[in-house]
Amino acid sequence: MMKYELIIYWSEADNSFIAEVPELPGCAADGETYSDALHNVQTVMQEWLETARELGRPIPQPKGKLAYA
């Protein structure tokens, strides 16, 4: 399970939902529906991480925004 922050929003210019992963530079996907964008970005995240491993590039740790005491 990937624990990276996702931002999903509607883009009028693209006429689709856009899903971005701010912690993974350049990692984004789109879809006709919110669910499509989520599914597509999960695939792109896996590919991003696999490529980074293959190339020996650093992989950012998920930041996690909330902490409960």
Automatic annotation (TrEMBL):
Pfam families: UPF0150 (PF21748)
SUPFAM superfamilies, alphabetized: TTHA1013/TTHA0281-like (SSF143100)
InterPro entries: TA_system_antitoxin, TTHA0281-like, TTHA1013/TTHA0281-like
PANTHER family named among the record's database cross-references: ANTITOXIN HICB (PTHR34504), UPF0150 PROTEIN SSL0259 (PTHR34504:SF2)
UniProt name for this protein: Uncharacterized protein
Lineage, uppermost ranks: Bacteria, Bacillati, Cyanobacteriota, Cyanophyceae, Leptolyngbyales
